[in-house]
Amino acid sequence: MDSDTARSPSPKTHCGEPEPDADACRVLPCMDAVVKVFCVHTEPNFSLPWQQSRQYSSFGSGVIIGGRRVLTNAHCVEHHTQVKLKRRDSDTKFLATVLAMGRECDIALLTVCDDEFWEGVSPVEFGALPALQDAVTVVGYPIGGDTISVTSGVVSRIQTLQYFLTSELLGLQIDAAINYGNSGGPAFNDRGKCVGIAFQKDTSDDTDNIGYVIPTPDITHFIEDYEKSGEYTGFPELGIKWQKMENPDLRKAMGMKRDQKGVYVKRVEPTTPASGCLQPSDIILSFDGVDIGNDGTVPFRQGERIGFSFLVSKKYTGDKALVKVMRDSEIHEFEITLATPKKLIPGHLKGMPPSYYIVAGFVFAAVSVPYLRSEYGKNYEYDVPAKLLVKHFHAMAESCDEQLVVISQVLAADINIGYEDISNSQVVSFNGQPVKNLKNLVTMVETCKDKFFKFGLEFGQIVILETKSAKAATQDILTARCIPSAVSDDLKA
């Protein structure tokens, strides 16, 4: 054996075991900060909102960071009834408290009150965003194992990913194995610093070993957002629907010069501050001084480009941004306050139970993505009625309190004979008055129960239902009104 490749005998530790090599030393100390997350969930039943689904248990991974806090995925603790954490070197499970949860970025922040949990543990340090082909090590507790698991790979892609419905944030694609239970576990670089946390893998039949990691820029944004305001306020959006300007005829029609590049504004969210500045048919040329390409990308790092939504996601709710646009061949600059737009069909209810209203057997509910999943399953996009699906993907809320109200179902009773088959039909108006939201509908119905009810449905049918009186109707059929304390603003008069 050549002298320059020969190795000296491994030194002994105080236990008589050989010390790990240099590479292992850089990673192993960080593993003590990895914890197993145990959660008991009790999800609302959105199809039968007066009930709750049967509770179930799940497990995931987490990592201890500074400030006596633990980082994990939001989906690991969503609708939690109880959360417990167990350290690698302990046989005790400690009760945890959820401090903040960001469903758009799939990050949650936990803490433990028991001082014993924090004894002798060092929080991980965050590393910089890795480069392509940098080595990463994913640590966690996949497939229900009680001992820690380590998988290795490299960063194969860095891009903006769709985390939650329409949310586009920075993400890392890696080829290290990520399985159920790895969620929330850290990904370390070769110096033992955390460069992200695992959150999902690609389960397509035509892919292999593709996993995704939430990188440190998103994590630090979440933490700083929480520290600034005491709660998670979200990643802001510019509030527009846009399209690429790669077609030369389109560019010519819009009066763009050869050296001008940008994206075309199709629509502007009415509930965002941008609606007071930007207009459809505007061409956004730059964001905060960074020129936007015709394909919607901006310079990222040397030799790389990334979607310009990355620049927006770096901001905080309430921050201002300078947007340069071309309108009617003239250049304008606007200082726009960034915010989170109100979705007509929200992606979640921030962990709150659903609100509902029952009168004369008609069950009224506000539509949300959890409601659609409850009604039509995980792949609801294929089964939802076309009119609801169009509103889900394309309609915009005109005001911050607007809701899409539907007759979820009709509970059979003598008073509603002939209407039992109505389900998931939008309520357009009541007695000729537009229905703005569920609270608005409740107010109108409660004031005239002894009169005729008129419900304008999305397919144009008018339902006329005569009640005897408010008292008689209550006696004859089920009349209920749910005002959970957590969502009382939704319905209280």
Describe this structure in words.
The chain has helices spanning 22-31, 74-77, 216-229, 248-253, 309-313, 369-376, 386-393, 438-446, 470-476, 488-491; strands at 34-41, 56-65, 69-72, 80-87, 94-95, 97-102, 107-111, 135-140, 149-162, 168-174, 186-188, 194-201, 211-215, 240-243, 263-268, 283-287, 290-291, 297-299, 305-307, 320-327, 330-337, 356-359, 362-366, 405-410, 425-430, 433-434, 452-457, 462-466, 480-482. The chain has 493 residues and is an alpha+beta fold. The strands form 5 sheets. Strands 22, 23, 24, 25, 26, 27, 28 and 29 form an 8-stranded antiparallel β-sheet that branches. Strands 5-4-1-2-3-7-6 form a 7-stranded antiparallel β-sheet. Strands 8-9-10-13-12-11 form a 6-stranded antiparallel beta barrel. It is globular and about 70 Å long. The chain starts with 21 loop residues before the first helix and ends with a helix.
User: How much is the radius of gyration in Å?
Assistant: 27 Å
Query: Could you give a short account of the major beta sheet?
Result: 8 strands, antiparallel
The chain-level structural class is alpha+beta
Number of strands: 29
Helix count? 10
Question: What value does the average pLDDT take?
Answer: 83
Amount of beta strand: 25-35%
Q: Any low-confidence stretches, pLDDT <50, length ≥5?
A: 1-18, 20-27, 452-493
Fraction of helical residues: 10-25%
